[in-house]
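EI: anyone free to look at a 301-residue chain?
SC: sure, send it
EI:
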Amino acid sequence: MLTEKQFTHLVARADHCFPQLMDKMEQLHGDFPHWIWKQEELEWLVRQLPPVTDLPPRTEVLAIWALSPIGRKKRTLVITKNTLFVVHKDAGCILRKLPKPYLHLEYDSLYTNALSQLLSQNGWGKTSTPDLSVPQDKKKSENFCGNWEAELLRRDPEMKKLPLAHRHYALFPVGSTSDTSRAVWLNPATIYEIKDGAKKYDATLIHTTYAMTFAVDISRRTLMHHLQLATVCHGYFRRSACDTPYNPQSSLSHFLGYESTPALDSVFQNLDVCHLPGRDGDFMELWKEEFGREYMRRVMG
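SC: here you go
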Protein backbone atom coordinates (compact mmCIF):
# COMPACT_ATOMS: atom_id res chain seq x y z
CA MET A 1 0.00 0.00 0.00
CA LEU A 2 1.01 3.63 -0.39
CA THR A 3 2.18 5.65 2.58
CA GLU A 4 -0.19 8.29 3.93
CA LYS A 5 1.99 11.01 2.40
CA GLN A 6 1.97 9.31 -1.02
CA PHE A 7 -1.78 8.79 -0.84
CA THR A 8 -2.50 12.42 0.05
CA HIS A 9 -0.23 13.60 -2.77
CA LEU A 10 -1.88 11.22 -5.24
CA VAL A 11 -5.43 12.39 -4.46
CA ALA A 12 -4.40 16.06 -4.69
CA ARG A 13 -2.71 15.35 -8.01
CA ALA A 14 -5.79 13.55 -9.33
CA ASP A 15 -8.02 16.48 -8.32
CA HIS A 16 -5.74 18.78 -10.33
CA CYS A 17 -5.24 16.59 -13.42
CA PHE A 18 -8.66 14.92 -13.68
CA PRO A 19 -11.17 17.33 -12.06
CA GLN A 20 -14.20 16.20 -14.08
CA LEU A 21 -13.46 12.51 -13.64
CA MET A 22 -12.90 12.99 -9.91
CA ASP A 23 -16.23 14.82 -9.57
CA LYS A 24 -18.00 11.99 -11.40
CA MET A 25 -16.32 9.35 -9.26
CA GLU A 26 -17.30 11.17 -6.07
CA GLN A 27 -20.91 11.24 -7.25
CA LEU A 28 -20.79 7.47 -7.62
CA HIS A 29 -18.82 6.79 -4.42
CA GLY A 30 -17.74 9.56 -2.07
CA ASP A 31 -14.84 7.59 -0.62
CA PHE A 32 -13.63 5.88 -3.79
CA PRO A 33 -9.86 6.62 -3.37
CA HIS A 34 -9.79 4.47 -0.21
CA TRP A 35 -11.25 1.42 -1.94
CA ILE A 36 -9.46 -1.43 -3.68
CA TRP A 37 -11.30 -2.06 -6.94
CA LYS A 38 -11.87 -5.49 -8.45
CA GLN A 39 -14.42 -6.46 -11.07
CA GLU A 40 -17.15 -7.12 -8.48
CA GLU A 41 -16.71 -3.71 -6.85
CA LEU A 42 -16.64 -1.98 -10.25
CA GLU A 43 -19.94 -3.68 -11.15
CA TRP A 44 -21.45 -2.12 -8.03
CA LEU A 45 -19.85 1.27 -8.65
CA VAL A 46 -21.30 1.74 -12.13
CA ARG A 47 -24.76 0.35 -11.44
CA GLN A 48 -26.23 3.86 -11.68
CA LEU A 49 -24.58 4.77 -14.99
CA PRO A 50 -26.87 4.73 -18.04
CA PRO A 51 -25.41 2.46 -20.73
CA VAL A 52 -24.25 3.82 -24.09
CA THR A 53 -23.87 2.03 -27.39
CA ASP A 54 -20.51 3.54 -28.33
CA LEU A 55 -17.75 5.89 -27.20
CA PRO A 56 -17.51 9.47 -28.46
CA PRO A 57 -14.97 9.72 -31.32
CA ARG A 58 -11.31 10.22 -30.42
CA THR A 59 -11.90 9.56 -26.72
CA GLU A 60 -8.75 9.41 -24.61
CA VAL A 61 -9.11 6.11 -22.78
CA LEU A 62 -7.55 5.57 -19.36
CA ALA A 63 -8.87 2.08 -18.61
CA ILE A 64 -11.07 -0.67 -20.01
CA TRP A 65 -12.66 -3.32 -17.78
CA ALA A 66 -14.94 -6.10 -19.00
CA LEU A 67 -18.12 -6.34 -16.92
CA SER A 68 -20.54 -9.22 -16.51
CA PRO A 69 -23.17 -9.33 -19.27
CA ILE A 70 -26.81 -8.64 -18.54
CA GLY A 71 -28.73 -11.28 -20.42
CA ARG A 72 -27.28 -11.26 -23.92
CA LYS A 73 -25.94 -7.74 -23.65
CA LYS A 74 -22.17 -7.44 -23.32
CA ARG A 75 -20.94 -4.66 -21.04
CA THR A 76 -17.59 -2.90 -20.73
CA LEU A 77 -16.54 -0.15 -18.34
CA VAL A 78 -14.45 2.53 -20.06
CA ILE A 79 -12.77 5.17 -17.92
CA THR A 80 -11.78 8.30 -19.82
CA LYS A 81 -10.07 11.55 -18.92
CA ASN A 82 -13.36 13.23 -18.02
CA THR A 83 -15.91 10.55 -17.12
CA LEU A 84 -16.91 6.88 -17.12
CA PHE A 85 -18.99 4.94 -19.64
CA VAL A 86 -20.70 1.59 -19.52
CA VAL A 87 -20.67 0.54 -23.16
CA HIS A 88 -22.99 -2.17 -24.42
CA LYS A 89 -20.22 -3.82 -26.40
CA ASP A 90 -17.63 -6.52 -25.95
CA ALA A 91 -14.25 -5.16 -24.78
CA GLY A 92 -12.57 -6.64 -27.84
CA CYS A 93 -14.93 -4.76 -30.15
CA ILE A 94 -14.13 -1.47 -28.39
CA LEU A 95 -10.38 -2.09 -28.55
CA ARG A 96 -10.55 -3.01 -32.21
CA LYS A 97 -11.88 0.42 -33.20
CA LEU A 98 -9.68 2.64 -31.02
CA PRO A 99 -6.67 3.11 -33.40
CA LYS A 100 -8.82 3.76 -36.49
CA PRO A 101 -9.14 7.58 -36.22
CA TYR A 102 -5.35 7.90 -35.90
CA LEU A 103 -3.86 5.07 -37.98
CA HIS A 104 -6.83 4.22 -40.23
CA LEU A 105 -6.30 0.65 -39.05
CA GLU A 106 -8.00 -1.60 -36.55
CA TYR A 107 -6.46 -3.40 -33.59
CA ASP A 108 -6.66 -6.88 -35.12
CA SER A 109 -4.35 -9.74 -36.06
CA LEU A 110 -2.79 -7.69 -38.87
CA TYR A 111 -1.92 -4.95 -36.39
CA THR A 112 -0.56 -7.29 -33.71
CA ASN A 113 1.43 -9.41 -36.19
CA ALA A 114 3.04 -6.30 -37.67
CA LEU A 115 3.79 -4.88 -34.23
CA SER A 116 5.21 -8.20 -33.05
CA GLN A 117 7.61 -8.26 -36.01
CA LEU A 118 8.63 -4.64 -35.48
CA LEU A 119 9.50 -5.35 -31.86
CA SER A 120 11.15 -8.74 -32.31
CA GLN A 121 13.26 -7.57 -35.27
CA ASN A 122 14.67 -4.83 -33.04
CA GLY A 123 15.34 -6.91 -29.95
CA TRP A 124 12.21 -6.13 -27.94
CA GLY A 125 10.57 -9.50 -28.38
CA LYS A 126 13.45 -11.58 -27.06
CA THR A 127 13.96 -12.92 -23.58
CA SER A 128 16.34 -10.05 -22.84
CA THR A 129 15.99 -6.32 -23.37
CA PRO A 130 17.68 -4.57 -26.30
CA ASP A 131 21.00 -2.81 -25.89
CA LEU A 132 20.04 0.63 -24.63
CA SER A 133 23.60 1.86 -25.05
CA VAL A 134 23.19 1.75 -28.84
CA PRO A 135 20.49 3.63 -30.80
CA GLN A 136 18.09 1.18 -32.42
CA ASP A 137 18.44 2.77 -35.85
CA LYS A 138 22.13 1.86 -35.84
CA LYS A 139 22.11 -1.51 -34.13
CA LYS A 140 18.95 -3.54 -34.47
CA SER A 141 18.91 -6.52 -32.14
CA GLU A 142 21.59 -6.59 -29.48
CA ASN A 143 21.07 -8.06 -26.02
CA PHE A 144 21.17 -5.75 -23.03
CA CYS A 145 22.76 -6.48 -19.67
CA GLY A 146 22.44 -3.03 -18.09
CA ASN A 147 21.76 -2.52 -14.42
CA TRP A 148 18.26 -1.08 -14.48
CA GLU A 149 15.06 -2.71 -13.35
CA ALA A 150 13.73 -3.46 -16.83
CA GLU A 151 16.60 -5.94 -17.28
CA LEU A 152 14.81 -8.16 -14.77
CA LEU A 153 11.46 -8.08 -16.53
CA ARG A 154 10.32 -11.31 -18.05
CA ARG A 155 9.88 -11.15 -21.81
CA ASP A 156 7.09 -12.82 -23.75
CA PRO A 157 8.90 -14.63 -26.61
CA GLU A 158 5.64 -15.38 -28.41
CA MET A 159 4.46 -11.76 -28.02
CA LYS A 160 0.95 -12.88 -27.08
CA LYS A 161 0.07 -9.82 -25.03
CA LEU A 162 0.84 -6.82 -27.16
CA PRO A 163 -0.21 -3.27 -26.33
CA LEU A 164 -2.53 -1.11 -28.37
CA ALA A 165 -0.77 2.10 -29.34
CA HIS A 166 -0.96 5.08 -31.65
CA ARG A 167 0.50 8.57 -31.51
CA HIS A 168 -1.85 9.92 -28.81
CA TYR A 169 -1.87 7.18 -26.17
CA ALA A 170 -1.38 3.48 -25.49
CA LEU A 171 -3.11 0.72 -23.54
CA PHE A 172 -1.51 -2.41 -22.15
CA PRO A 173 -3.24 -5.70 -21.23
CA VAL A 174 -3.62 -6.64 -17.60
CA GLY A 175 -6.23 -9.38 -17.93
CA SER A 176 -6.78 -12.01 -20.58
CA THR A 177 -6.25 -11.11 -24.25
CA SER A 178 -7.88 -14.31 -25.52
CA ASP A 179 -11.00 -14.15 -23.30
CA THR A 180 -12.52 -10.69 -23.73
CA SER A 181 -14.95 -11.35 -20.85
CA ARG A 182 -11.94 -10.98 -18.55
CA ALA A 183 -10.26 -8.13 -20.42
CA VAL A 184 -8.52 -5.36 -18.47
CA TRP A 185 -6.49 -2.67 -20.25
CA LEU A 186 -4.76 0.33 -18.66
CA ASN A 187 -3.13 3.48 -20.01
CA PRO A 188 0.59 3.46 -19.11
CA ALA A 189 0.70 7.24 -18.63
CA THR A 190 -1.68 6.89 -15.66
CA ILE A 191 0.26 4.28 -13.66
CA TYR A 192 1.49 5.74 -10.39
CA GLU A 193 2.85 2.64 -8.65
CA ILE A 194 2.54 -1.14 -8.78
CA LYS A 195 2.92 -3.07 -5.52
CA ASP A 196 3.09 -6.81 -4.95
CA GLY A 197 0.74 -8.14 -2.30
CA ALA A 198 2.00 -8.31 1.27
CA LYS A 199 1.70 -12.11 1.24
CA LYS A 200 2.51 -14.66 -1.44
CA TYR A 201 -1.01 -15.12 -2.77
CA ASP A 202 -2.29 -11.59 -2.19
CA ALA A 203 -3.39 -9.54 -5.18
CA THR A 204 -1.04 -7.05 -6.82
CA LEU A 205 -2.15 -3.43 -6.39
CA ILE A 206 -2.04 -0.96 -9.28
CA HIS A 207 -2.27 2.66 -8.11
CA THR A 208 -3.33 5.11 -10.83
CA THR A 209 -2.90 8.86 -11.14
CA TYR A 210 -6.69 9.28 -11.11
CA ALA A 211 -6.72 7.90 -7.55
CA MET A 212 -8.20 4.47 -8.27
CA THR A 213 -6.40 1.39 -7.00
CA PHE A 214 -7.03 -1.88 -8.82
CA ALA A 215 -6.34 -5.37 -7.48
CA VAL A 216 -5.21 -7.95 -10.04
CA ASP A 217 -3.81 -11.48 -9.93
CA ILE A 218 -0.68 -10.75 -11.95
CA SER A 219 2.79 -10.17 -10.51
CA ARG A 220 4.38 -6.73 -10.44
CA ARG A 221 7.24 -8.04 -12.54
CA THR A 222 4.94 -9.09 -15.39
CA LEU A 223 2.93 -5.87 -15.18
CA MET A 224 6.09 -3.77 -15.34
CA HIS A 225 7.07 -5.63 -18.51
CA HIS A 226 3.73 -4.87 -20.18
CA LEU A 227 3.92 -1.27 -18.95
CA GLN A 228 7.38 -0.81 -20.44
CA LEU A 229 6.41 -2.35 -23.77
CA ALA A 230 3.39 -0.04 -24.03
CA THR A 231 5.53 3.07 -23.49
CA VAL A 232 7.97 1.91 -26.18
CA CYS A 233 5.16 1.31 -28.69
CA HIS A 234 3.59 4.66 -27.84
CA GLY A 235 6.98 6.25 -28.42
CA TYR A 236 7.37 4.56 -31.80
CA PHE A 237 4.01 5.81 -33.10
CA ARG A 238 4.55 9.29 -31.62
CA ARG A 239 7.97 9.51 -33.30
CA SER A 240 6.54 8.29 -36.63
CA ALA A 241 3.87 11.00 -36.55
CA CYS A 242 6.21 13.76 -35.37
CA ASP A 243 6.42 16.63 -37.88
CA THR A 244 8.66 18.86 -35.76
CA PRO A 245 12.36 18.37 -34.92
CA TYR A 246 13.16 16.32 -31.83
CA ASN A 247 16.33 15.35 -30.04
CA PRO A 248 17.02 11.60 -30.37
CA GLN A 249 18.98 11.76 -27.11
CA SER A 250 16.06 13.18 -25.13
CA SER A 251 14.42 10.93 -22.56
CA LEU A 252 11.43 8.95 -23.77
CA SER A 253 9.35 10.15 -20.81
CA HIS A 254 9.95 13.78 -21.81
CA PHE A 255 9.24 13.02 -25.49
CA LEU A 256 5.92 11.41 -24.58
CA GLY A 257 5.03 14.04 -22.00
CA TYR A 258 4.52 11.50 -19.20
CA GLU A 259 4.48 12.80 -15.65
CA SER A 260 6.98 11.41 -13.15
CA THR A 261 5.68 8.54 -11.00
CA PRO A 262 7.54 5.82 -9.07
CA ALA A 263 6.53 3.12 -11.58
CA LEU A 264 7.24 5.18 -14.69
CA ASP A 265 10.54 6.51 -13.37
CA SER A 266 11.65 2.89 -13.03
CA VAL A 267 10.48 1.92 -16.52
CA PHE A 268 11.98 4.98 -18.24
CA GLN A 269 15.39 4.79 -16.57
CA ASN A 270 18.10 5.04 -19.29
CA LEU A 271 15.46 4.89 -22.05
CA ASP A 272 15.79 7.61 -24.71
CA VAL A 273 14.08 8.31 -28.04
CA CYS A 274 17.02 6.81 -29.94
CA HIS A 275 16.30 3.42 -28.35
CA LEU A 276 12.86 3.11 -29.93
CA PRO A 277 12.55 0.17 -32.35
CA GLY A 278 12.86 0.44 -36.10
CA ARG A 279 12.53 3.41 -38.39
CA ASP A 280 9.56 5.58 -39.21
CA GLY A 281 7.33 3.72 -41.64
CA ASP A 282 8.51 0.23 -40.67
CA PHE A 283 5.23 -0.66 -39.00
CA MET A 284 3.14 0.26 -42.05
CA GLU A 285 5.42 -1.73 -44.34
CA LEU A 286 5.05 -4.77 -42.08
CA TRP A 287 1.28 -4.24 -41.90
CA LYS A 288 1.08 -4.16 -45.71
CA GLU A 289 3.04 -7.42 -45.87
CA GLU A 290 0.64 -9.00 -43.36
CA PHE A 291 -2.33 -7.70 -45.36
CA GLY A 292 -0.88 -9.22 -48.56
CA ARG A 293 -0.37 -12.59 -46.89
CA GLU A 294 -3.88 -12.56 -45.46
CA TYR A 295 -5.33 -11.61 -48.85
CA MET A 296 -3.49 -14.47 -50.55
CA ARG A 297 -4.66 -16.93 -47.89
CA ARG A 298 -8.25 -15.94 -48.57
CA VAL A 299 -7.84 -16.06 -52.33
CA MET A 300 -6.17 -19.47 -52.23
CA GLY A 301 -8.85 -20.74 -49.89
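EI: The chain has ten helices and eleven strands.
SC: 👍
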